[in-house]
Amino acid sequence: MKNPIQAMFEAGVVEATDFPPESRYHGVPTKTLVAPDGRQIAYLARRFVPHPEGFATQGYRITRQGERLDQIAAAAIGDPLGFWRLCDANGTVRAEELEVTGAEIRLTLPEFVPGPEEEL
Known about the structure:
alpha+beta; two-stranded antiparallel sheet; globular
């Protein structure tokens, strides 16, 4: 199966940046600040957490004691660095908010990838 984020990148749905398609910063525009001494400082524009409604739910997972979000991401989506996708789908930027024992984590497809019950 092709990585859905890579497929959206190739289809032109997601813009190219210096960050790889699986990065949370892929598609975030770069801006430049001119310092008082004339130096140009590049930085990323602010990235807003997407609305959880933009994600198709695949299921839920209850966290166990001592479990980290990167471990859950590795098991659920096959990529420990994709922990940020779980954060986005659950409306948070901080992994530790989802690492509480007994927390229910919503497992989803990437943003705007339709689920099987949705029309293409």
